[in-house]
Amino acid sequence: MSRDVPDRPAGAPEHRAGVVALLGLPNAGKSTLLNRLVGERLAIVTHKPQTTRSRLLGIVTRPEGQVLLLDTPGVHSGQGTLHEAMRQAVDEALGDCDVACLLVDLVRGWEPAHDLLRERLAGAGKAWFLVGTKADLPAAGRTAWPPAGEPAPDRIFRIAADRGQGTRALLDALLERLPASPPFYPDDEITDRPLRFLAAEMVREAAFQELADELPYELAVEVEAFDESRPEIARIRANLLVRRSSQKAIVIGAGGRQIKAIGTRARKSLEKFMAQRVHLELWVKVDPTWFKKRKRLTSLGYV
Ligand SMILES: Nc1nc2c(ncn2[C@@H]2O[C@H](COP(=O)(O)OP(=O)(O)OP(=O)(O)O)[C@@H](O)[C@H]2O)c(=O)[nH]1
Ligand SMILES: [Mg+2]
To answer: What predicted TM-score, i.e. pTM, was given to this entire model?
Structure first.
């Protein structure tokens, strides 16, 4: 993965590079932090817990080093193949990282599930930073901070990733902790995931944002066709997979209004991200067992 880098001028600090795992409970603000540090809306963010389903690499390149940020699904105790795959993504991230950041929502404070995460950090023997999130919210100051317990974090931060408060200091501290290494990726790359996967995620984000609370968790998006060959417009066709035909009716909405709203919202974020006009075609399909099939989860990019 490494590549040649020019010789350092004498006296210049050593170049550093490595992997930072972003861990935490659902909704802690992991994806928001990744987006802020990368400077692009790479990871989807919603107010709903369990938005992120698979690991996503965000690449931050600075003159002094390269940070590979691993976004992970929030740790929770759900059952089934999708949840197992999500837990596996967390374990792998912990195994692969040089430094872990445990993100804790300062409004909710330290919860029992964090003790379990801290045990796993101890087991992995990794350096770790404790990162309090959503410091901008008035209720954020009221929880006991930092929480007592072992192993103690190497560093403690309070951030508001939404507005970039404290994130630069966190990035500097992460860069300092990474091993000396040439960069792993060219400096214009911001993720290891193909555009096709990001497009599916952007459609899923739009659906999460447009639909009522009870539905979206049961929804997946599969990009069926992705044609970038014409410079004036990209053509994307995607399927929204739901479990029941009653859900299909909700996603389509009266007179097709709901699916149209999802499509418009998704197209706008795709066009912004790709800096190109996009033609987006969405279909809703009923597949009662999509989330149970390992093969399906693989094709959706979740495992
Ligand atoms: N006020 C405030 N809200 C934030 C901040 N960071 C994240 N949020 C909000 O918190 C919610 C969850 O953010 P995400 O980044 O999706 O959280 P996550 O940890 O990736 O969640 P999962 O993917 O579900 O595990 C969203 O509504 C964000 O806008 C922050 O610094 N301040
Ligand atoms: Mg997330």
So the answer is: 0.87
Closest CA to 169 of 15, 63, 33: 33
CA of 107 to the centre of ligand 2 (A): 17
Mean pLDDT of 90-115: 90
Percent of the chain clearing pLDDT 90 (strictly above): 57
Centre of ligand 1 from the C-alpha of residue 233, in Å: 32
Tokens 């872990």 locate to 100
The DSSP element (H or E) to which 121 belongs, if any, is helix 112-124
**pLDDT score of 210 more than 80:** yes
What is the residue whose two structure tokens read 């590979």? Answer: 68
Q: What is the C-alpha to C-alpha distance for residues 92 and 264, in angstroms, rounded to an integer?
A: 36
Ligand 1, pocket-test mutation among 22, 25, 27, most atoms within 8 A of CB: 27
Query: What is the pairing mode between strands 56-62 and 65-71?
Result: antiparallel
Ligand 1 atom 11: residue of nearest CA: 47
Dist CA 39 CA 254 (whole Å) = 37
Biggest CA-to-CA distance, the chain: 68
**Cα(191) to centroid of ligand 2, in Å?**
15
